[in-house]
Each structure stands twice: as structure tokens, then as C-alpha cells.
Amino acid sequence: MSLFRLTLRNVLHRRFLSLLTVCAVAITVSFIVLLSLSRDSVEEGAKKGYGPFDLVIGAEGSETQLVLNTFYHIGAPTGNIPLAVLDQVGLDSGVDKAYAMTTGDNYNGFPVVGIDPGYFMTRYGDRKLQEGAIYAHTGETIVGSYVAQTLGLKIGDTFTGAHGLVQEESLAGEEIEHDDFEDSAAVEHEHEDEVAGEEHDHKSFLYTVVGILPTLYSPDDRAVFTTVDYAWAVHNLAEEEREITAVLVKPNSLLGAHNLKQTLDGSNGVQAAYTSKAVSDVLNAVDQGSRLIGVLTALCILLAAISILLSLIAAVGERTKDVGLLRLLGKSRAYVWMTLTTEGLLITATGLIVGLLLGHLGAFLLKDAFFSQAGIQIDPYHWTTNHGWIVLGTLCIGLFSSLGPAFRMYRLHPLALFKS
């Protein structure tokens, strides 16, 4: 009987224990693969998220919040700034391109973003639309590929938006003091009137889909784009009341970005933020969370190694007489040693293959949920050098876990093995 066939029969003889060991290895590998794919996707998505716009100008507040809302369509904007800021930026000699952005509304949870059509040429080059044409008039929209796919939108469809970037829910279970009841009721009544007015404004303003963007593999896939003046049209704002949410700036040089930041930052409630710095802060926060996950991963690896070790120790205890008989029949110590190490590697390799498949399957199942929440896509078909290290590390763990029990059998005399 060949070495591989003997090893396979030994593994199948202890089906339950072998299955538990394979599961331990598979779960550990799949967790590491999913973590690796997620980390690579976050880093790649963060780099692609803001394109050539190294500077963003908005209302004072958190720089991270401003950048996440502007480029990744996450969270609420920090506020509005005067429209005159756009003119001031446009006159700066250090600016190559500058585009105003207005946000604050949504359609079925997807943000409605008002921005000049030139943004797409600057950001993505001369890529053609999947269908239709770019918007030219107030109320016309182009939608991201993910939005079109999720909501089933096509050219010519019409819809109305809603105020806010997320669906607002009333707080339940709050206790109101009796003395403040009248004031609270008055505020609530005023808020209801305001909300009712906003809902009426939004219901009366109709959007028309005139184009669908190609798949861009960026947060823009999950946004609805229209003209900058949509917010002013929805709320019937006079010219002196018009404001914008942010200005996206592509500077001529880093020096130009620095000078513009020095000029605008902190003046009249306006802030200028370096996009790359804000994104780096977010990635640093993610890395800190990854360290904790890394500790949990190390524990999983340790448990998988212990599982392999215990499985082989149990095999040694069960097959002491069998190994002794093999030695008396003339099989060498090396053959006995290879039998046990091959068994450990076979179990490990099986768990490794299953784990790789499960990890990529998990990425496939989670990609839509991850993209809808963070605007970053996980590529379940992506293979990197990390996979090679995962394969090599897993096989090494299986080999090292096999050495102890195999060496124990290797050292004993065949008569001692048989008598025991």
C-alpha cells in the first residue's frame, strides 16, 4: 500500500476528529483571507475615493467628516458656506479646477449630489456613460451604476427626493418633564410644520434620469448626480440666500494647495482640508482596529495548531500497535515519520483549500453590504501575494504541529511499540 493511500485511510478511519480539525483550519484561513481582502479593499478604495482633488473647502468642523461626506458620501455635511467662496477659489492662480457641491437630500437612501458636469471629466477622464447623456438642465440627473442596478432605474424614469441623507426616525421612550411639556409641544409643533413644508417642497420637485454612469469602482457608484442649483430650486431660494456644501479643488501644485489653505482656513466659518491627510487619519483608525483583529487572528491560528496537534496525538495513541507491526515488517523509521507528517499535512491542506474558498465566498456575499455602507468594494476574485503567505504559513503550521507526535513514534523501538 502506498504512503498516500495509507495516510488517507488513517484520516478516514477517524472521520469525526479529522473533520473537526479541518473545520478549525478552514475557519481560521477563511477569517484571515476575508480580513486581508477587506484591508486591501479599504486601502485601495480610500486612495481612489478622492481622485485628483487634494483640497476640499467646506464649513468649519471635523475635517474627516467633511472629506467623508464630500468624496465617500458617508455621514452628514459639516454645514454650508457662501457661494462667493467658489468665486474666490476660482480666482486663485494656484487652482487648476474647482467645483461646487451641494448635498443634503437623498433618494431611497442614496445621496443626491449637485455638482458641475466637468467634475466627471476631471475625475474619470473621457469615460463614456453606460447609457444616456450628461445632465444639462435643473432636475436632470445621472445615477451611479449601483443605484441604477439596485433601484432598477432606467433612462426617462422620474422620481422625487427627500430631505436628509438618512431616514429620520423619531425618538421613542423619552420622558418629558411636566413643567417643560408646553415648551416641548410648541417646539415639536414648529418642527412638524417645518418638516411638512420641506416634504411639500421635495414632493413638488421632480427629477428625471437622463444618464447612467459606468461602473467606476468608487463611492460615486452609489450616488445620484444633478446640477448644483437643485437645492436652491427645491427650496425656492433667492439669489442672496444661495449656499453650497463644499468646493472640490484640484490645485496646480502642492504649493498652490498650501497657499489656498492658508488663505481660506478659519475665515468666516470656512475650513480648507487636505484630503489625503483626512483619509490617512481614517486609515490609521482602521489600522488600530486591525491590530485588535490581528490578536484575535493569532488566537485562531494557535487554536488551529493545537487542534492539529491533538488530532495527531490521538492518532499516535490509537495506532501504536499498527506502527509497531509496520516496523516489524521492515518499514523504516522514516516511513513511520512520513506517515504521521503526511497525515498532518493532508488535514491541513484540506482545511486550507476549504478556508480559501470560504474566505472568497464570504467576500462575495458581503461585498454589496460593505459597498452600500462604506462605498468601498471588496473584489472576491482578487488574489495577491498575501494568499501565498497564507498558504505557506498554514502548511508550515501543519508541518510543525505534526513533528512532535511523529518524532515520538520515530524514536521508539518496534518491539516497544508493539508491546505497548
Automatic annotation (TrEMBL):
Reported function: Part of the ABC transporter complex hrt involved in hemin import. Responsible for the translocation of the substrate across the membrane.
Quaternary context: The complex is composed of two ATP-binding proteins (HrtA), two transmembrane proteins (HrtB) and a solute-binding protein.
GO annotations of cellular component type: plasma membrane
Native species: Paenibacillus monticola
Domain ABC3 transporter permease C-terminal: 295-414
Official protein name in the record: Putative hemin transport system permease protein HrtB
Listed transmembrane segments: 16-37, 292-314, 335-358, 389-410
PANTHER family in UniProt: ABC TRANSPORTER PERMEASE (PTHR43738:SF2), ABC TRANSPORTER, MEMBRANE PROTEIN (PTHR43738)
Membrane topology: Multi-pass membrane protein
InterPro entries, per database record: ABC-4/HrtB_transporter (IPR051125), ABC3_permease_C (IPR003838)
Family to which this protein belongs: Belongs to the ABC-4 integral membrane protein family. HrtB subfamily.
Domain of life: Bacteria
Family annotation (Pfam families): FtsX
